[in-house]
Prior knowledge:
Layout: H1 3-14, E1 30-37, H2 43-63, E2 67-69, E3 72-74, E4 76-83, H3 87-100, E5 105-107, H4 112-125, E6 129-131, E7 146-148, H5 153-167, E8 172-178, H6 182-198, E9 201-208, H7 211-225, E10 229-232, H8 236-248, E11 255-257, H9 263-266, E12 275-279, H10 287-296, H11 302-321, H12 326-335, E13 339-341, E14 344-346, E15 358-364, E16 367-374
Parallel strand pairs: 1-4, 1-5, 5-6, 6-7, 8-9, 8-10, 10-11, 11-12
Antiparallel strand pairs: 2-3, 12-15, 13-14, 15-16
Amino acid sequence: MRYGIILTLFIASLLPAVARSNTDRSIDPIRIGLIAYTKDEHQRRVGTPALNAAHMAVEDVNRAGGIRLGDKQYPVELVVEGIASSPQNAIAAMRRLTNLEQVTAVIGANYSVDAIPAGHFAEKARTPFISPMSTNPRTTEGRNYVFRMSFLDEKQGQVMADFAFERLGSRRAALLYNRPDPYSHDIAAVFIGSYVGSGGKVVVKEGYVDLDHDLEPSLDLIEKAAPDVIYLPNFSNEALRQVRAIRKRGIDVPLLGADGWSPGEFSTYPEFDNTYMTVHWFAGADRFSTRYMERYGVEPEAVSALTFDAFNLLFQAIGRSGRLDRETIRQQLIDMPSFDGVSGDVDFIDSGDPDKMVKILGILDGKVQSLGHSNGGGVAP
């Protein structure tokens, strides 16, 4: 028996009776798929936070009676496919969810390296697909059934370049990025173009393939170049190693990151003082953060808020469609009014890319601070 089926049954058994009291139990549920990282190093920072938020969203809608289609209320069933991050695993998960499980729509995968091929499969299968966190333009490019909840790499790379040049006053930047990863590679390219366009100089541009082999030689070059800032547009597991290695060398310049960083966790490490990152959202005193903290005992990650919003946006689109037709649901995602989510407003106009604000956080004296936001064209306080 696969992980997805086991987890689906387990979730259903946990739901309180009131969660389904307003629905006819003889009605087949609306099945929604979730691709979650449950089998690799991304589980703690991305997989589990996304899965937790999915549970909350599904339980909320079922507790309210489900989704109304015509004169009936339909419960929602969550079907989870747990994977380790890889394009092959993402495609296999999409194939199982669409062909075998016959889900109405799929949420995830989150990393662009997985979301790009998963989105390609979703388009061929004509199944609505929403990636909460993928920022690479290729995820949605030329696709009608693929959506995202996040801003694009182009925007966050530009915003960080503006912040580094204007707010930090830097003029010399170094970059260390994962060359084969489309997420890291493409953000680095945007940053370089924007930073140089503003009048800055990129003194070192180091793309690595094997961090174990390439890290120290790359840092030798960066240290020798004496940059004002170092940009590390990489995921948390790699950024953690890189920042610690940089600080170990006594390099104390500002370090810059992207939305793949984990600000809450990183603020507990002294090496991350004087670091800055672009983010979608950060946990605060809002109701979602409070509920999540009460239930799971930890603060939600940005992917938690984005996943929660993705499910509720999809629920609203299904309800507005009036029937379980994938094409109609896809069209409703485009046509429906702006969705007011936990992570901000989401409005799909002509594509699956919402116009989302980029936020800048800094870790200063061990505390996470909000330092500004931008929709492009400069960073406002």
